[in-house]
Structure formats: C-alpha cells, structure tokens
Amino acid sequence: MEWEQSRESTNIEDRRGEGGGGGFSIGGGGGGLGIGAILIILAIGYFTGIDPRILLGGAQILTGGGNGVAYQTPAQTPARQAQPVAQNDPMRHFVAKILGQTEDVWTKILPEQKGVQYTDPKLVLYSGATRSGCGQAQAAMGPFYCPNDQKVYLDMSFFNDMRTKYGGGGDFAYAYVIAHEIGHHVQNLMGILSKVDNAKAQVNRTQANALSVRVELMADCLAGVWAYNANQEWRILDPGDVEKAVATAQAIGDDRLQTAAQGYAVPDSFTHGSAAMRQKWLTAGLQSGQIDSCNTFKQ
C-alpha cells in the first residue's frame, strides 16, 4: 500500500503510557462489573455457547456509558500494561496518515453522495486500557467506535494479533481495520446508529444480534468505499493489497472466531457477520465506491 505521501491527521489523541483506566472492577466501582454480573455472564456463555470473553468485553464497555453502544472489531486478547511511547513511532505515523486519508475522502464523498456534511472524529491511541464515552476500553475488545464522544479507540497491539492470530497483516489490512471503525462514524453522521439502537431495544436478543451484524457489514462495505475513492485519488493500492484485506475480513468473521475459541459457531450469537458475509460486503464497497451499495439492511 502506498501511504507515505499522505498528510497526517491532527485528530490523534495519544494516551499511551498514561497507565490506562485499569482492569475489570470486581467491586463494581468506577463503572466496572460486579462479581454477580460476572457470574451471570459466565452462565449465559455456558448455556448459549458464546465465548464468555466476548460477553465480558461487551458488558464492560457498556457500563458507565449511558445509552451508547460501542461498535468494535472483535478481539480476544488479554489486556496489556501501558508501555512507554517511543518518540519516533512509525505505526503512529501510519495511523495518522490513514486517518488523514479517511478525512479527505469522506469530506468529499459524503456530501456528494448523501448530502451529509462530514465532521472529523478523534482517534485515541492507548495501551492496555483507558476510559471512553461508552465506558471502559480494553485491548481485549479490539478497536471500536464510540458514538457518545465520536472517537475511535485503538490499542495498536491489535495489529500484532492480526499477524499472529487472525492470519492477516500488511499495511492495507491495518488500514481496513481503521477504515471500518471510521465507517461507524459515517453511519453515526447519517443517523443509522441511533435508529438501529432504538430498533434493538424493541426486539429479542437474536433479532438484536442480526441488526448488529447489518451494522458491522455496512461498516465493512464503507471501508471498501473509502479504499476505492482513496485509490482513485492517490493510487494507494499495490498488487495483493485487496487480497490481504479480504483475508483479514474473513479471519475476523464471527464463525471463524467462535470456532477457534470453542470449537463450533453459534450463528444466532453473531454480531459482526460470517467470514463469507464480511468478504462480500468489503468487496462490494471496493468495487463500487458508492455508499448506496452498502445498504445491508435491504439484503
């Protein structure tokens, strides 16, 4: 991927090295989970077949976050301790440049295609744990977008996990992960997230999960829309880039993550979509460059 010549966004909030917001609060203070809640979640995991780590991550991020819901890339990695921040950090520069590309693309095409003005989100870099407008952020949750404060939260150790656990890796695959979370910001600006959250409050758990899948697949497609338009503007794609991003989308499909964690998948518990679905929608955006090609709610 060709990204070195891009401008760096100034909308980076670097909290690495601050020590984070701590781990799970067993006593229940400060927005943490009480021991009773943890036991209930473990029981739910036992009877539904859902990996308890996923449930714990999702519950934790909702505590202290009002009615907001964080939209995240799934991960199952233990939280890490904060590390000192190097003065010359190539990955920070990479993230800032990709964020700058997303800003330039969406500032242009969101008003053109949908008549909606784009406002830049912040991207928070952290190590291990920090606080977000949607509650506690932990590395185990993976990257996520919080609509309450319109910020993307990223522990860059997730990129290492992509290489070692998810069979992904490479600049464009990392850029896809960032662009997916920015896709949630675009959904927020278009009013989609609030509508889905309201709809989820009116239906059962299986139906709510199905709505979450549609939201995540649309974010995959919007990441593809960004890539198409960025390539038209700056020729960012090298041979093999698209294949790596598609491989990453497949690797973090719910079916593959659940099978790897527990030996089988529970489709009713999917919140992000299967490997095939994620590949389909990322490819749809990559091929069209049009927001309207990403209407996952009519499929």
Task: Describe what you observe in this structure.
This protein is an alpha/beta fold and 299 residues long. The chain has one domain. The strands form two sheets. Strands 1-3-7-6-2 form a five-stranded mixed β-sheet, covered by helices on one side. A two-stranded antiparallel sheet has the order 4-5. Helix 3 packs across helix 5, helix 5 packs across helix 7 and helix 8 runs antiparallel to helix 10. The chain is globular, with a radius of gyration of 18 Å. The chain starts with 11 loop residues before the first strand and ends in an 11-residue tail after the last helix.
Distinctive features:
50% helix; 8% strand; alpha/beta; single chain; two-stranded antiparallel ribbon; 299 residues; 7 strands
Q: Count the helices. How many?
A: 10
Q: What is the count of distinct domains? A: 1
Uncertain runs are 21-38, 46-67, 76-87
Radius of gyration using CA atoms only: 18 Å
Rough shape? globular
Strand arrangement across the biggest beta sheet = 1-3-7-6-2
Helix content: 40-55%
Mean pLDDT: 78
Biggest beta sheet summary: 5 strands, mixed
Q: What is the SS-derived class?
A: alpha/beta
Instruction: Tell me the series of helices and strands, N- to C-terminal.
Output: EHHEHEEEEEHHHHHHH
Number of E-type strands: 7
Give the terminus-to-terminus CA distance.
31 Å
Percent in strands: 5-15%
